[in-house]
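Could someone model coenzyme A with this protein?
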Amino acid sequence: MQTKHIDAVVELQHSSFPPPFDPALHWKPEHLLRHLEVYPLGQWVAISESQVIGSCSNTRISEHAWNHSASWDETVGGYFLEGFDLEGSTIFGLDISVHSSARKLGIGRAFYDRRFQLAQAGNCLRYGTVCRIPDYYRYADQFSPTEYVRKVQSNNVIDRTLTPLLRYGLGVDATLEDYLEDPESMNVGCRLSKLLQGVAA
Ligand SMILES: CC(C)(COP(=O)(O)OP(=O)(O)OC[C@H]1O[C@@H](n2cnc3c(N)ncnc32)[C@H](O)[C@@H]1OP(=O)(O)O)[C@@H](O)C(=O)NCCC(=O)NCCS
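Reply:
Sure, complex below.
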């Protein structure tokens, strides 16, 4: 990602996280500019025919932030990434968005391959993230969040976000209630990680 891509990335946020997701929670240009200052190596776009069709934002955080944070804000230090730690143990995935016209073509997988490479190249212990489970609201009267995630893991239920992320080889660590503001996910996040060969900082 470069500064010239920022407007297109913001636009992609709007189409990738439509209502009922609160548009006030999308990246704003000043956030993305700051990400490029803080950690340019971890900000990427996918381009096709000169158009931005995918974006992917990452930060690097300490082992303590990974293990002990109660909210997304606390984990990464808010939208301006004040928790960034160049020596941290964990590459933390902030966002991945692929335009709806370009989904299921492997672009998400290509971003994930790059995420794992970034973690390995930086001698990180792991790649980790907390993802939405946006189809949970359809099942919330039947299953607890943990039961729902198990159903997705066993392929009995498809979740439009968790299903692809599991296909990338991430393991489920926990379900976190009241972790994010997301009506479709019923404010539940699913904490996922992949351990990589490296040295914990
Ligand atoms: C989640 C997202 C990034 C996936 O990107 P993508 O480029 O479409 O995914 P890929 O093409 O790499 O697909 C990977 C695998 O998941 C499967 N998959 C992708 N979307 C799926 C869906 N909606 N339902 C079922 N399976 C799906 C693919 O078929 C593929 O399976 P395979 O490994 O067996 O071949 C994309 O759907 C997206 O941008 N969603 C909106 C934004 C979002 O929710 N981001 C995540 C925030 S936590």
